[in-house]
Amino acid sequence: MNKAKIATVFGSNGFVGQYVVQQLALAGYRVRAASCRPDYGMLLRYLGRVGQVAPFYASVTDEKSVACAVKGADLVVNLTAVLSMSDRHSLKTVNIEGAGCVARLAAEAGVRRFIHMSDLAVSASTSVHSLYIKSRLKGEAQVHHYQPEAAIIRPSVIFGAEDKFFNLLAGFARYLPFLPICQGNTKLQPVYVGDVSRIVVAVAQKTEHVGGIWSVGGPSIMTMRESATFVLKETRRNKSVIEVPSWIVGLGASLCRYWPGVIRTRNIMQALTIESIVHEENNAFDAFGMTPRSVVSCVPSYLERYRKGGSPFGVIIGEL
């Protein structure tokens, strides 16, 4: 009987992380669910067989814990990132230095395959001022320095029941007299979180060379204005979509960061003004022969709760 391969997933408690952990478990990996708060990841154990998924303490700012988590692993997936600076973490320490730390220690441990999650918007980073996007690009450079054969996965805006995109817009639509957006013509290619996790596992299991950039986008391209209009339709809010200057959006985002439940920061709003679409010759779904889920097949089921009176059925997603 073949011994199961070991996969270490950094950022396993996050939105994307829980889906990646489950897909790796389904693929037969023994998964080390690494995060700085393993107590938050106890439910991840139920995503696999008994003992298959184990929460690990590992902070990308703590080299000893990272070295312990990657020791003996066949695969390391780094999903860790922060969208803004806080009292404990900064864009530099997590998105740049943290990415380099994980890549370096994985290389020293002899890890055979390394996958790093980035952001599709970094392809336009030379012409934008988002500190978040710039930190992601520098993080990629750190990974390539220590792991020249690493696979870099660049998804567009990721959607799912716990997302910070459609839920963000729906939250604004619920409480504000109109739905504000910045640069309504910005093109995005929203991709379902379950499909992103399947791409991660496909790259992990590919027998040939996988190094380089893997761009991941959904089946349709939407502008910010189209996305906002879609949200108003699904939440049944009869309000206007108004494009406002970026400084007003930034000011509003700064004030709204104190609202409970959803992160709203200037960096997030800046990131949503950057074009994030996949060029046909570089589409990971085409490379692996996969068909991604569409926005209309998934998002309405979890936007119902933003309607007046809420949803009578709760949030139901048909498949991972």
Q: How would a textbook summarize the main sheet?
A: 7 strands, parallel
Can you identify the CATH class of one domain?
A: Alpha Beta
Count of individual helical segments:
11
Assigned CATH architecture of one domain: 3-Layer(aba) Sandwich
Give the termini distance in whole angstroms: 29 Å
Please identify which CATH superfamily of one domain we are dealing with: NAD(P)-binding Rossmann-like Domain
Overall residue-averaged pLDDT value = 88
Radius of gyration: 19 Å
Which stretches of 5+ consecutive residues score pLDDT under 50? none
- Give the fraction of residues assigned to helices: 25-40%
Structural class: alpha/beta
Q: Outline of this structure?
A:
This protein is of the alpha/beta class and 320 residues long. The protein has eleven helices and 13 strands. Helices cover 36% and strands 15% of the residues.
Q: How would you describe this protein?
A:
With 320 residues, the protein is α/β, with parallel strands linked by helices. The chain has a domain at 6-160 and 191-216: Rossmann fold. Helix content is 36%, strand content 15%. It has helices spanning 15-26, 63-70, 91-108, 131-146, 166-175, 193-205, 224-235, 246-256, 266-271, 284-288, 299-303; strands at residues 6-10, 30-35, 53-57, 75-78, 113-117, 151-155, 158-159, 179-181, 187-188, 191-192, 212-216, 222-223, 241-243. The strands form four sheets. The chain has a seven-stranded parallel beta sheet with strand order 3-2-1-4-5-6-11, with helices on both faces. Strands 7-10 form a two-stranded parallel sheet. The chain has a two-stranded parallel sheet with strand order 8-13. β1 (6-10), α1 (15-26) and β2 form a beta-alpha-beta unit. α1 crosses α6. The longest helix is centred in the N-terminal third of the chain and has 18 residues, at 91-108. The chain is globular, with a radius of gyration of 19 Å.
